[in-house]
Amino acid sequence: MIKLEAFSGRIQFWKYFSTPTWRKFVKYSDDYSEIAFKYINEALNKLKSYKETEDKPLTLIQAMMVDQKLDVKDIMVIVADFLQAGIETTAHSAGFLLYHLAKNPDKQERLYKEITELLPTKDQKVTKDIYNKLKYFNACFKESLRLNPVVGGTARTLAKDVVLSGYLVPAGTLATVPYTELFTHERYFKNPFKFEPERWLDKEKKSHPFACVPFGFGARSCIGKRLAELEITLLVVELIKNFKVEYHFEDIGMKTLLANVPDKPLRLNFIER
Fold first, then answer.
1. pLDDT (mean) for 92-109
2. What residues form the annotated binding site?
3. CB 3.0 to 4.6 Å from 247: which of 102, 105, 208, 222, for a disulfide?
4. CA–CA separation, 40 vs 46, rounded Å?
5. Three-class SS of residue 243?
6. Against a cut of 0.85, is the pTM above it?
7. pLDDT digits (tens, 9 = 90+) for 196-216
């Protein structure tokens, strides 16, 4: 998809004839549709004889069909978006967080203490109440997203004329916000390239509220934010509760594809506690 976009700097030959990159894109899009329809059809078949109870609530797809009354085409688009926008982004965000905790054992130990205070036994699970009390975890997660945001940035078409740095920018202009440059700017963050979760807990050290918005803001912010935060919290809390995480190789950087990904393998060691 990136290679097909005009901003990639490549000539868009695919608009005039089928190119290898275009054919790959079509194939992978078809794969997404095939997987999406597979789960939609399964949900449709099960729904015919399904009776919802407290122990057996409707799945998300079934709820869309019953409560939202969406047709199959609409649901297919939503499920395909889940697959395309929710898997790689969530996985790499969790990976970067584990990497930073492995590289900063003192931060990992503080997080482990918070987790064991809230979950004193290994079989105890995160509840809504406990989730809201994971203050240091949330600080670690936000700091990881600051250093390694999910995507390279965001773009918006201006709805009205605005003045930016003394320049009048007319409505209709496409304005972009590069996340990495903004999130690591010395104007907003002291020691900007250092993993310091504590900066999000100290009210006096808190930066401008819009200096770090990895999920965007407002009506067009990331629709999957809450789901991603919940998934990563449950995964990483469970891992840190049961394992000490270590990393003993060269530093890992970041490269931007459709999402930001590690530029080296995440060769993490998990040592059972």
1. 97
2. 222
3. 102
4. 10
5. strand
6. no
7. 999 999 876 678 888 999 998
